[in-house]
Design goal:
This protein is an alpha/beta fold and 386 residues long. It contains 16 helices and twelve strands.
Amino acid sequence: MSLPTTISHAPALTIGSLSLDVPVVLAPMAGITNTAFRRLCREFGVGLYVSEMITSRALVERNKETMRLIQHHESETTRSIQLYGVDPKTVSEAVTILVAEDRADHIDLNFGCPVPKVTRKGGGSALPWKQDLFRDIVEGAVKAAGDIPLTVKMRKGIDADHLTYLEAGKAAEGAGVSSIALHARTASEFYSGQADWSAIATLKETVTGVPILGNGDIWSGEDALRMMSETGCDGVVVGRGCLGRPWLFGDLAAAFTGSETRFRPTLGQVATTFRRHAELLAEFFESEERGCRDIRKHVAWYFKGYPVGGDLRARLATVESLEQLDELLATLDWTLPYPGADAEGQRGRAGSPKRTVLPDGWLDSRTLGAAGRGTLTETEADTSGG
């Protein structure tokens, strides 16, 4: 397999005080990027592995589940947490807790979530439309973070007629963030269609003082090299491409060091990794039953393209114990080779374009003002982890 010749060795990525040998970041994904999955990805490659989204209000109130989600395994030497919030004071308080209690080495702010339960209250990818609110949240968080690198992740905007990424990028740079990641879709696009990598290039040309990371449609090491070549971005953020493929981080490391080596697992290697994931989930949840329930949603991703029958897939998707899982995996032909293109490409639900659900009158003005902020507090419900 030949590689693009424009980038044979990507430079290390510096995010504040952090230095990454490979410019790769795991995108926060609700219900996916818990400690178990982050540990599994680290076993295959290197990079910065970010937690599930943590709600600022729940952290400040020390919600039991949230406090568990911010814990890291001792092997996670760079502890990265993504925060979500709509109130500058609450977000600052959450950052202060993480710093004062030495719970994170990197903090990311979520301004990219497109799901209706978030955007309908003005949060996530809807929030940068209100320039004053966005600026106050980021400035307060940077101040509270002190020497801890604080970054932001966002989308292009609400829809094609209401783009926000350039103004938000400049505001974030001015506030002192350590890097900016752009998912090159609008909220209304959700995950549909093709990511607009040209927007990443435009942001890179506009914001020159901090690293710009690109996100969207990276399914392989070749995609990552191509994104950096075409956009000039300083690193890549990988989300759905690693679903059921934690070894993608090994492929990315190889690609960025100029190696053509790629992990092309046999069915047996996939089964072994799937079993390892289930084991780590059981440890994370401190419950074998809960860990097995959680691994069920990963079945289709891991075995995409492999000749695993529908009946067996259905049984794997209802597994209740590690012993039962072992029995089912033992029925596979572990010698079957990597199926090639059938196992590649898009993963996860792309959805379809849809009108973004927003608060009444949200688009009438680019500012919110003090009077309007009280209406947003209910957005910060206990939704840590999505």
